C-alpha cells in the first residue's frame, strides 16, 4: 500500500490520495467553525455522525438517479469519493427564510417561500463567500451557462428528494448548501457532504419553539447547547427512514 498524502484540508474534512488516482479518501473531522471560521470549536462525534448521514443520503440520492462522488464508507469517519475538480461555488437551496436571507432581505425567520430559491455563492474564504449575480459568476468564469442550468436543475431535484426524505424523519428541510465537481469525463457530480453542518433542519414536533426545533449547526453558531444530541438525533431518524424504505 502506498503512503497516503494529504491533498486538501478544509474546515470539516481532510482529503487524502489513495492507490487509485481517480479516488480520494475523505476524513470527517469533529472540528466545527462558523462565521467564516471566526468561531471555532469541536463537536464530539461529529465526524462519524456527518459521515454516516452523508453516506446514507448520497446512497439514497444515487438510487433516485442523482450522480454523486460517493463510493463507500470504509471507516467510521471515512468516505471514499471520486476525485473531482470542484467548482468554486456554494449552491444554496432555500425553502424557508433563515440565516443570511433574513439578514440581507428583512424577510422574517420562518417565512415559507412560494417556491424554492437557488442561490450561488463564490467559495472564497478571503472574500467571505459573497453572493454572486449571474453576470458576476460568468465574469469570473466560475462555471459555463450550461453548467449553471444543469446545477440549478439538479439542485431542485435534490431539494425535492431531500424535502420528502426529511419529512419522513419528521424534520423540515429549511435550507442547505451543495457543492458540485467535474469528473475526468467533464460530467457534473454532486460532491462534498449533506449533513447538519450544511443543512438547516427543524424538528416538526418542536416547531413552535425556535430554539428546541433546531437540529443543525445553528445550535453551535448560536450557542443553543446540546449540539451533539441534535446531530445524533438526525442520524437516528435518517437511519430509521432508510430502514423503513
Ligand atoms: N452553508 C454551508 N456552508 C457555508 C455557508 C452556508 O453549509 O459556508 C449552509 C448553511 O448551513 C445553511 C445554508 O447553507 O444551511 C444557507 O446558509 P446562509 O446563507 O443562511 O448562511 P449563514 O446563515 O450560515 O451565514
Furnish the topology, listing elements before pairings.
Elements: E1 6-9, E2 13-17, E3 23-28, E4 31-34, E5 39-42, H1 46-64, E6 70-75, E7 78-82, E8 85-86, E9 89-96, H2 99-105, E10 112-122, H3 134-139, H4 145-167, E11 171-182, E12 188-191, E13 199-203, H5 218-221, H6 227-243
Antiparallel strand pairs: 1-2, 2-3, 3-7, 4-5, 6-7, 8-11, 9-10, 9-11, 11-12, 11-13
Helix pairs in contact: 1-6
The structure holds uridine-5'-diphosphate.
- Taking Cα atoms only, what radius of gyration do you get, to the nearest Å? 17 Å
Bound ligand species: uridine-5'-diphosphate
The CATH superfamily of the largest domain is identified as ATP-grasp fold, B domain
Stated plainly, the CATH topology of the largest domain is called: D-amino Acid Aminotransferase, Chain A, domain 1
Distance between the termini: 38 Å
Could you explain how this protein is built, in words?
- This protein is an alpha+beta fold and 245 residues long.
- It has 2 domains: 6-82, Phosphorylase Kinase, domain 1 (2-Layer Sandwich), CATH 3.30.200.20; 85-243, D-amino Acid Aminotransferase, Chain A, domain 1 (2-Layer Sandwich).
- 31% of the residues lie in helices and 31% in strands.
- The protein has 6 helices and 13 strands.
- Helix 1 (46-64) packs parallel to helix 6 (227-243).
- The longest helix is centred in the middle third of the chain and has 23 residues, at 145-167.
- It is globular and about 50 Å long.
- The mean pLDDT is 97.
- It binds uridine-5'-diphosphate.
- Residues 90, 92, 98-101, 129, 175-177, 198-200, 217 line the site of uridine-5'-diphosphate (UDP).
Amino acid at each position: 500500500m502506498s503512503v497516503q498524502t494529504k491533498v486538501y484540508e478544509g474546515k470539516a474534512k481532510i482529503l487524502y490520495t489513495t492507490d487509485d488516482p481517480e479516488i480520494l479518501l475523505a476524513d470527517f473531522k469533529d472540528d466545527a467553525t462558523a462565521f467564516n471560521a471566526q468561531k471555532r470549536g469541536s463537536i464530539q462525534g461529529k465526524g462519524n455522525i456527518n459521515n454516516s448521514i452523508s453516506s446514507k443520503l448520497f446512497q439514497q440520492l444515487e438510487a433516485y438517479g442523482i450522480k454523486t462522488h460517493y463510493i463507500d464508507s470504509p471507516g467510521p469517519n471515512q468516505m471514499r469519493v471520486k476525485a473531482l475538480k470542484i467548482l468554486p461555488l456554494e449552491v444554496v437551496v432555500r425553502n424557508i427564510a433563515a440565516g443570511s436571507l433574513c439578514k440581507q432581505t428583512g424577510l422574517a425567520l420562518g417565512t415559507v417561500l412560494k417556491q424554492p430559491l437557488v442561490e450561488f455563492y463564490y467559495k472564497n474564504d478571503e472574500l467571505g463567500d459573497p453572493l454572486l449575480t449571474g453576470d458576476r459568476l460568468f465574469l469570473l468564469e466560475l462555471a459555463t451557462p450550461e453548467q449553471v442550468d444543469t446545477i440549478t436543475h439538479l439542485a431542485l431535484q435534490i431539494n425535492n428528494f431531500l424535502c420528502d426524505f426529511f419529512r419522513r424523519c419528521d424534520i423540515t428541510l429549511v435550507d442547505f448548501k451543495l457543492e458540485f465537481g467535474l469528473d475526468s469525463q467533464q460530467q457534473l457530480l454532486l460532491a462534498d457532504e449533506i449533513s447538519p453542518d450544511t443543512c438547516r433542519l427543524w424538528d416538526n414536533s418542536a416547531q413552535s419553539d425556535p430554539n428546541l426545533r433546531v437540529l443543525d449547526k445553528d445550535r453551535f453558531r448560536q450557542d443553543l447547547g446540546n449540539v451533539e444530541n441534535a446531530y445524533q438525533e438526525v442520524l437516528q431518524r435518517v437511519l430509521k427512514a432508510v430502514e423503513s424504505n
